[in-house]
## 1
Amino acid sequence: MDNRAILYVRVSSDEQAKGYSPDAQLRLLRDYAKKNDFEVVSEINESQSATYQGRTEFARMIETIKKENIPIVLFEKADRMSRNPIDANVIYDMIENRGLKVCLVKSGTIINRSSPPPVKFSFYIEIGMALFFSWNLREETKKGMNEKVRNGGFPSLAPLGYLNKQLTDSDGKVLERIIAQDPERAPLVKQAFELYASGDHSLASLRDWLNEKGLKTRKYKKKITKHGLEVVLHNSFYYGLMKWNGVSYRGKHEPIISKALFDRVQERFASRHRPNPRGLFFEFKGIGLKCGYCGCSIVAERQFANKDKDYYFYYHCSESKGKCQQTWFREEELEKQFAEAIGQLQIDDQVIGLIKAALKKSHEDEEEFVKTELTRLQSEYSRNETKLHKVYEDKLEGVIDEGFFKSKYEAIQQRQIEIHAEIEGLRKRNSKYFEEGLEIFELMKNLKNQYVKADPAQKQRIMKILVSNWELKGVNTTIYWNKPFDILFEMGETQKWGG
Ligand SMILES: [Zn+2]
């Protein structure tokens, strides 16, 4: 029997900076290989920086597996395996089409082509959760981050109330691009925050007030909209914190408002009672509805049924010449079709157990991450508090002058604000993780029933989780399911698995 195996370890640069090394991972994999009599042909270490640009060690591993027909690959955990959905799909493809066997050593999970669908299913849930919530996302975020943001600059059009300016020398050569307060709009932005925090204004009345004052956007000289105003009131840029790809940085620009005022506005948003009118909400928007006759996308439309303004939502082919034979669908009809389709899903206690286990496993990894990050941030915070005291005392003792004191004090204060925001972000992330995991779990337990009794927004959410795209062809609907739910549908069709 061919027992050749590749060991693959990965430690992110972040983790390395914190003292993690790939050695522990490697030892674990070597032990496992020895116990199972695998012949290790290659040890691949993603932690070493790639020798030349664009080619990762992951790609090298894939090449080796293909070229030499290696049948086995070992990883520590799912989150060590792939950095992005594309890599995950490559692995998936090799399992299905090349007969690759994947061992996740820490949990003892083994996947190959003939693994029972439920095992594959939980494997993909694990990968999926790892992809969304683990180190990978963070790394991607950082990679995509602009160098400029890191240094406190802002890479695009400054928000309303600020201006993008260029500092030039006497020859007109650009020395630096900076963000300066807009003398005309900054005071209005500040007042908008104050008025909204006071609770005397709704978004609509505040918008009207701003428009009366003559506020116009910079680029198109337009009036501000309700949505535009909401974006402004949620933007931490105004008190000094820039958000870039979900990460906060201290900006070099001068704040327009204080953090306290910003917080009051956010509280006001949170407490605002918002009735939820149905409005123009199309349930089947954004789930990839396509026409099965001509391939055009399916679009939604509201049609009034009578003078009393009763209306229905319709879906029809967007083919412009009117030649398509596709009929129009009422939203209710599509709902029925969807409910029928999910009714065929095979979800029993065994599957529920698998989902539960996969979610648990991936959550342990996430928790580990959040815990280390929180500890790091909290200790930095208290170190900074000590520094603040020290600077204050030095000032009192006359050891440092006013200017030095001020710049030092402000710099530390700003970092404290940043740490605070980072901690908040981590907490939110953690609860979001729970919510999403539980949502999938609860949903799968009684899918059809949950769908039928859900409100339109929830229905759309359920479809977005499950559906990758959907082809309508008269009464014949074909729904293509997202991974890993496609496996559940296969199970329903074949009934071959389990016992
Ligand atoms: Zn069509």
Note: Residues 49-54, 132-147, 273-278, 495-499 have pLDDT under 50 and may be disordered.
## 2
Amino acid sequence: MNPVLAFHRSLPGYAPTPVVALPGLARSLGIAHLYAKDESNRLGLPAFKALGASWAVHRALAGRPPSTVVTATDGNHGRAVARFARLSGHRAAIYVPPGVPAAAIRAIEDEGAAVTRVPGDYDAAVRAAAHAAAAPDAVLVQDTAWPGYEEVPGWIVDGYGTLFAELDEQLPSPPDLVIVPAGVGSLLQAALTHYRGRPAPARTAVVSVEPRAAACVLASVAAGHPVTVATGETALAGLNCGTVSSLAWPHIAAGLSAGTAVDDPEAFAAARLLRANGVDAGPCGAAPLAALLRPDFPLPLSPATSALLLVTEGAAAV
Ligand SMILES: Cc1ncc(COP(=O)(O)O)c(C=O)c1O
């Protein structure tokens, strides 16, 4: 069996997250099937990030004496790193930019982690974490890559692969379309790695969705190379990133079908719709539905289309 899936299956509390069919919403969109992969309870945490953090902490720290696991976060990743550091007997030092909700910071501290607030933006918090991780007993477990720092982020992407391995067993056939919320693009990389490994006729279209205030994937695709965007304020805190991961970029450049952006009110409206249909979604998790509901959704939909929303966080994440 795939070693990452075997590892996740060995963790206490592991269960595949549910796939929920949304026939009413599919009808109103004029498509055949709409599914939501509901990540509101992933290994006891309210976002998919636990998959990457658990595997990367395991790979990076197994056999090490008690160390300090360091990362920057806009919420979910830091909480997951803090959780798995604690469970494996390590300390955690988490760097957060402004804009991370107070409840998300408290949840990180409740895992026993030391939280440092960094002025500036998410990229500044990543730099602060990388600097702190130069200490002798520290290990950086960051969910974005840059030249010279790619091994650990690669493990994080491998960890996200479990979500797609589960989907293969849960859906009758691969969807025609999957919509992925993108911050630095590591989850997008995992989706592209998974669905681009298939023969061309069975190809799943992969579409990214970002907050309009932090659309670094869209800007990079438009430029034809990675560009850093100045990020603004958005309630989609987990997606408020200005730079695409260097590991994700080649996958995005070669394989992304289309990208789009949404505004916060659209994400909130989509979260309410999902809740009304029995799916617990925070604003990042609702962004894929918000994208699909936009009149300018970048790909054609047809009465035969089966679409999958990655609902990457529950409301408790924010
Ligand atoms: C809830 C949620 N969805 C999606 C993402 C996007 O993941 P990535 O940064 O790998 O693009 C994040 C990242 O923090 C997140 O917290």
Note: The first strand starts at residue 19 and ends at 21.
